[in-house]
UniProtKB/TrEMBL annotation:
InterPro entries, per the entry: Calycin, MoaF-like, NTF2-like_dom_sf, SnoaL-like
Residue ranges occupied by any SnoaL-like domain in the UniProt entry: 121-213
Domain MoaF-like: 8-99
One Pfam family in the UniProt entry: MoaF_like
Official protein name in the record: Putative SnoaL-like aldol condensation-catalyzing enzyme
Species annotation: Mesorhizobium tianshanense
Length: 235
């Protein structure tokens, strides 16, 4: 959860049971509201506090010039705002209304890289540390494409390979980078060949599953034997 996901710059119209309000999310510290009709009609810019409750739900609170206090729970998954207001008179109001976005945020947060990196880490640890063949069906696409020339094609072949892995096989994840739907991970695997190997695996993720895989492997050379004097892999 991060306040960085708060949709700064977004404008939206909220329809409550008794009135409508337009909200402009100016920043993580300011909001402007406009009520055009009714007893609450006015426009005001207020200082706000934003607390993320999940990746797409935020509690937004403020105090207005007349002393009224308001807390919005803005739920972007369901398209609803739950509002709790205490008026200067002491009257407490609860309201829930749907909202329509009239201007998109200045920056759309793309959390695919984080989600995809977590998926790849889970897959590599499940298959090549725990040797859990059942994880293949859960994490890999049904039409999974394998580019390693020494592994048969498809998800079923991968599942069979994992089921037959030696207990000596152990994978260590290292640096991982992601952009969009692609993830590359640098690691070391022992027990796959006669010597430990350093490997770069590249995955394409589609619909939350590992859909395609490429890899490059190289036998690890001890740091004392390298010309540059640095290790090939640092976990």
């Amino acid at each position: 959860m991060s306040v960085e996901r708060f949709p700064i710059g977004q404008e939206m119209d909220v329809t409550y049971p008794n009135f409508k309000v337009s909200l402009t999310l100016l920043s993580v510290t300011q909001l402007r509201f406009e009520i055009k009709e009714g007893s609450f009609a006015r426009t005001e810019t207020v200082d706000i506090q934003v607390v993320p409750l999940s990746n797409s739900i935020f509690a937004v609170s403020w105090q207005e010039k007349d002393g009224a206090t308001v807390t919005n729970v803005q739920d972007y998954d369901r398209g609803l705002i739950h509002s709790f207001a205490t008026l200067p008179s002491g009257q407490f109001i609860r309201m829930t209304g749907p909202f329509a976005i009239t201007r998109p945020p200045d920056r759309v947060f793309d959390d695919r890289p984080q989600r995809n990196k977590a998926l790849v880490i889970e897959a590599m640890i499940s298959l090549f540390q725990r040797r859990d063949a059942s994880a293949v069906e859960r994490l890999y696409a049904t039409d999974y494409i394998q580019h390693n020339p020494n592994i048969p094609q498809g998800r079923d072949a991968l599942q069979a390979l994992v089921a037959e892995l030696s207990k000596d096989v152990y994978y260590e994840p290292g640096l991982i980078v992601a952009e969009g739907d692609f993830v590359a991970i640098h690691g070391r695997i022992r027990g796959w060949a006669d010597a430990p190997q350093v490997v770069v695996d590249l995955f394409w993720i589609q619909d939350g599953k590992l859909a395609e895989h490429w890899d490059v492997l190289q036998n690890e050379v001890p740091v004392t034997a390298t010309l540059g004097g640095v290790s090939m892999f640092d976990p």
